[in-house]
Amino acid sequence: MSYRITLNETADTFEAEAGEPLLDAAERAGFPLAHDCRFGGCGACRVKLLEGQVDYEEFPFGLSEEEAAEGYALACQAHAQCDLTISATLLPAGHIPADFHVATIERLEKLSHDVTHLVLRIPTASEVDFHPGQYLNVMLDDGSPRSFSMASPPNGELFDFHIRRVPGGYFTGRLETHYKPGDALDVELPLGTFRHDADSPRDLLMVAGGTGLAPIKSIIESLLDSPDTPNIALYWGVRRAEDLYLDDLLHQWTRTLPNFRYVPVLSEGDDQWGGRRGFVHEAVCQDHQDLSAFDAYLCGPPPMIAAAKSGFSQRGLSVERIFSDSFNFTHELDDSVV
């Protein structure tokens, strides 16, 4: 049995077999729906159900209950139960196809007790004008990838990353004990749909958890020289003060950028910490009873993303204006982080 899926924006149609994810069916028919992780974690393949119903083998953690109640579904996991009409985003016209390159480690330096600043030189990618917010894959010897977001805007041959050491992580552990400047890595880039909506006039609410700061930083830095830079509020949530590995830089931005606000939040702050405590999304909700004027960009672990989506939508922020990148989903790899 198959079902007819109609794209509302173009009236194009394609067929989806019973039990087939909508994303797979769309790609098979030649319609490149926006997507990223394919495992229901990132939310990039979100579509709006205008007619019909879907179900899931398991409800995806990248979709909040509020989004589902408003008729949204994740195409990578959703199965049609009948003919559907959906509103969906195709890959943008400026989408840059990913390609494989050889990178050389330019620099390795500690940013904190468990975060390394990695700089890669990729000469063949010097013309790859990736979108701030995107990521690359480091390909291991067995062909499996490890995903890391670029932490700065396009900069010729040089690419910046913030990499947190994961206990037991194969690549992140070897980054401290095995790799050195001059070593070569096989990489694939650019990847991901997380990026700033330059057509939106709204103020920006940026919420990062841990090294989820990396793509947020890339987006913010890409906007700093614009004469129309919007107001930006950055909330950065970590466990302890020692985890605020770019705290000095972000405080410097608050002194030099009139439209930038920075709020660090600790979930396990000690007695010496005089700043905000708790979960980062709670700090946002404490400061803003009405979020309807913002675009929100969220990057961090799945529980943070889910809690933020729920709390922010309850304060008037449309789910269509919440953009997220969940960094702990890909293939259950032990050290795929942002």
TrEMBL record:
Instruction: Give the protein's recorded name.
Output: 2Fe-2S iron-sulfur cluster-binding protein
Q: Which residues form the FAD-binding FR-type domain?
A: 98-197
- UniProt source species: Halomonas flagellata
**Highest taxon of the source?**
Bacteria
Extract the InterPro entries matched here: 2Fe-2S_ferredoxin-like_sf, 2Fe-2S_ferredoxin-type, 2Fe2S_fd_BS, Beta-grasp_dom_sf, Cbr1-like_FAD-bd_dom, FAD-bd_FR_type, Flavoprot_Pyr_Nucl_cyt_Rdtase, FNR_nucleotide-bd
Q: Which cofactor does it need?
A: [2Fe-2S] cluster
Boundaries of each 2Fe-2S ferredoxin-type domain copy?
3-92
Tell me, what's a Pfam family for it? NAD_binding_1
